[in-house]
């Protein structure tokens, strides 16, 4: 058995003032109650909230402060993510800090939640890091998981645990939770999906094992989520299959098909026909113009019709 203890922190996130003091307090209390925890993960955009106007420069004093927390408590720390300025660009960036207070990973979200996460640039590099004598970890942020290529790339490069800070406060949270479970199963890895509260999300943080089963499901209040995982479960699942059935990573390794959809520069008429990636507004088909109880007719020329 290779045990390792990870704690998620599901906390309220304020959008009008920095949350660093609240995060520090949560970390102090967490480590007082659970001194055996070895890694702590906060939710997406926990330090400063989801406003791009709160973006901070890379390599600022904020990073130094976070490094001091990790060193003081002798833990690995993933303090959620922050909007960070780099030149004339802004990235949604997650830091990985080791127990010595050193930044060993800097991950920029690959898929900003467009068209809502406006003016945020896409990251282009994956984040994998080793915890000595434990295993390999990967980082993704929120909407990244809706694109299975991101998690699969981490898994085929050896990631046994995916750390996934998220900020979801919308009605698609239940869908996202199903994606978390599916991602854990098809990549045969642990996933810590940590959501915030209020301006930071609607909670329901989720921890899944390498068979896709739920280890812990949080509610909609502030919670500490300390979980001791066993890395041997990942090794066993990848060797013998999910529940001794599907050996997905081996099958992916041994595939004969070449997925040409990923070839650089290749275009697809269907995708081009979907129109621009924009925020939708009210339909120009006014519902009130119809008699009571009558839905507007389907416009086959434009592809619009009633949605049920």
Task: Provide the descriptors you would attach to this structure in a database record.
about 300 residues; four-stranded mixed β-sheet; six-stranded mixed β-sheet; 7 helices; 17 strands; globular; alpha/beta; about 25% helix; disordered C terminus
Q: Brief overview, please?
A:
With 308 residues, the protein is of the alpha/beta class.
Structural topology:
Blueprint: E1 3-10, E2 12-13, H1 20-33, E3 39-41, E4 56-57, H2 61-73, E5 76-78, E6 82-86, E7 89-97, E8 103-108, E9 127-131, E10 135-139, H3 148-156, E11 161-165, H4 173-187, E12 190-194, E13 197-198, E14 201-202, E15 206-208, E16 214-217, E17 223-230, H5 231-240, H6 248-253, H7 269-272
Describe the structure in your own words.
With 308 residues, this protein is α/β, with parallel strands linked by helices. Helix content is 23%, strand content 25%. The chain is built from seven helices and 17 strands. The strands form four sheets. The protein has a six-stranded mixed beta sheet, covered by helices on one side. It has a four-stranded mixed beta sheet with strand order 5-3-1-17.
Give the helices and strands as they follow along the chain.
Answer: EEHEEHEEEEEEHEHEEEEEEHHH
Q: What class would the helix/strand composition place it in?
A: alpha/beta
Q: Major sheet, described briefly?
A: 6 strands, mixed
The average pLDDT is 92
How far from one another are the termini? 50 Å
The tally of beta strands, per DSSP, is 17
Provide the spatial order of strands within the biggest beta sheet.
Answer: 9-10-11-12-15-16
Shape annotation: globular
Proportion of residues in extended strands: 25-35%
Low-confidence stretches: 297-308
Q: What is the CA-based Rg, rounded?
A: 21 Å
Task: Tell me which oligomeric state these chains represent.
Answer: single chain
Count of runs of 4 or more consecutive helical residues: 7
Helix content: 10-25%
